[in-house]
Input
Amino acid sequence: MGGLTVAAAPASTFPPVRGRLTASAPVGRHTWFGVGGAAEWLFQPADRDDLAQFLAALPPIVPVTVLGGGANTLVRDGGIPGVTIRLGRGFSRLAAANAEIVAGAGTLHLNLARFAVTAGIAGLEFLCGVPGTVGGGLRMNAGAYGREIKDVLVSATALDRAGREHRLDAAEMGFGYRCSAVASDWIFVEARFRGEPGEPSAVARRMAEIRALREASQPIRARTGGSTFRNPPGGSAWRLIEAAGCRGLRRGGALVSPSMSTS
Output
């Protein structure tokens, strides 16, 4: 078994699935940067049970990578070894009750924020300025404009590498600045968020303000990772980039934005 490579393994090596299992899938083009190689295998599970059963039967030697919305992700030209898992339509459910929203981990943050508007729930507007999906936001405690996932999360549900389900309260997530303490091989499948009752028109206005601020400070129509750099303790990444004279620095087709957010 030690000599088995995923690239050489036929589809029959893997457990049966109800979703899609594709060999040599060109995942690089599905990221925001639109570059990079293929996944040796790409699995798009039909739903949570399909994913759990696949993980439970998958040989432990097979590496697993989760790809969310492709924001802040650069796929190397050599591709991604093992199985890449991407959560699709079966993980984009949204439901609201009592100022709380349950969202599948494949839901785009923007769609979650828009749903909150129609549900009359305030407090989640900042998510319209956060690229990517709920699963990625949970992993890195994503945030913008003074708020973070930790401020609105009630609980999250994840599957471990063996397909077992775990429910974590917000306090158990171990949130820090752009990180969480959850095991790196756990895959988030759902989250529950809490806001507060709000007038839909007022929530929509606040969301429009945030989107206008983001558009004024970032090149949102270019192939960009958004706010790519983490802020150092007590400082701002943009200030360091400015001081180093790197604003607008270009190497081939890659460019440091000539205009950067100062929020």
Q: What stands out?
A: The longest strand covers residues 187-194. The chain is about 20% helix and 25% strand.
